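Open question from group meeting: does this chain pack into something compact, or does most of it stay loose? Before anyone orders reagents, we agreed to write out a predicted structure and look at it together. Recording both the input and the output here so the notebook holds the full record.
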Amino acid sequence: LASFKPQSIDSQSTEPHLVKEANATDTGVTEDILHTEGKNTERNSTDENSTDNSLLSEEPSLEAIRICREDNRIPFPADKEDFLFQLSRLFDMEENWEIETTIAAIIAFHPQLDKEDLNRMEPIFQRAANIVANSWEPYEGLLATFLLEYQRLWAQTDNSNTGVLRNMFTRLEEKLKGIDKNREAYDERSFKRLADWKPGYSNATCFTPIQQLWLNVIRQIKGGNSLPLLSTPTHTPAYLQATELIRRLAVYQEAGKKPCSWDFQLAIARCALEDKEEAIVTARQLLQDEYLHLCLFLLDENTQPEPPYNHPTAWVAAGLVKAPETEFKAFKSFACNTLPHNYLTGDYEWKEVKPKEKSYETDRRLLQLDFHKWHKYIERNSHQLWQEHLIINSKYNMDDSRYMEPLLCCYPNRPEPLIAQIISNYMAFGSPQEDSKRTLACALRMLLSFHCPLKEMSLLLLSGSLLFVDKTVRSYAAELWVEGLSTERINNHRVGEILARLINMKLAPLKRFTTQVYESMYKRSAFHNRQLEELLTVFISGLPDKPVTGLKQLLELYLELLTINRSKVTNEQLLQRLQEWATNSNLKKVTTSLNKL
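Structure tokens returned:
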């Protein structure tokens, strides 16, 4: 059996235009490229200037795509047999929602399990023990530690002569003692109770909220509490239908129990903000007091916070989902509201990349955020919000792309804080590491699967990825641009500005972008051709006065596009720029043709 691994760029694509193959770069290594289906042969041609927009596909509907549909509903185990089979696959699941659904199912089905079922679960417990002893992957280790903690609940009631479960723990401890001295400290530290779990390389971890949530699951099972987790997603990749959240809250209300703070926050962060009128009616029918006020605040644009605030972290989470740009006065006095608001929303200003200090330096980071010096903010960290652990503890936890998907699935409505960290840690314009390629591709793939508007950090990721050295990353970025425009999630003008700024920084050759446009952005539809015209108009207008390498090919593409769109250059800044570039003998022909349109 393969070890646990979240879906990477090598997994089967679910996007309609993508065929994922091997990582392809602009280097001399022989590589396959990721290509788009259908009309790529036409789009790759640069000499079919007579192509008319009317021959391209119809306009996109520009209608909002439903987030929660029947075809993306997440199935819950139908019965005990279904659950036991699902549990046996826990470390082989590729989708994060499968793992979360299985953990939620443990709460539901534990009361039905007997000793025979326990014997059937022993192989997965043994596998968890082996992972704890040998794995260096934090998320996989945390998951295995959780399962061993669940196993302990059974071990406490194992009164058989063999004491199979207790013996398994004894054997594991003996195995750890026999490990060579170089790994002994790590392994002894790894094999701890779930409450004491930490990754082997750091005392701080951005997985602390998940750890706390799973500890609550253990407490529920131990206490005979079968109330459902609020945050278990109902629809892929990580959304929770608003009416279902309300129904789950109603169960807690009827039982007179308070939900776990981490569970409540995550549920709100995943709440799909659609069918609001139906959800509001359901809330008024089922909820009362604070639960009702909180749900109305989340779902109704005109409703403001209303006390009491017995769940302050949930209120802050609701504010960040509903209106992340707004700092609600009612929340300022909360003990959990300690960091600057833009840290919680991921609204960062990005500065010029530092110039090379030495001739051999090639690893130039696109974004360098001050919270990398995280120790400065520990005293101001309340340790009560998901975002705080992600921000403060990211330095030692953002160096492995294999658990990026579980983190992104915590923020389907506003992934900006995590996107900023991904840019800061992985968007380097030199020779990329394989981990950087996987992480950037994973982030772009997840943004494709989400339905949220792309804010500044996501637009920066998109733009930087269109210039990235890895072909797969650029292809994902191009597909995100195509999809994002069709669903009105992208500020196209801003993308053009960011691209121009990046080229002015001399971070990447212009040829990468031009080639990618020809391959997967050009001639997708008449609508996308017009949007591409707007993008290139802004982009070219912002290029340096001195012609950059590859400008001729970009201007030839622009000329061909204007011809197809039956447009002409009207932007005053661009007209002036074309006049200046006309003095360059290499650009004179194409600039003259552009001026004559």
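Observations to bring back to the group:
The beta strands are 18-19, 35-36, 240-241, 271-272.
DSSP finds 26 helices and four strands in the chain.
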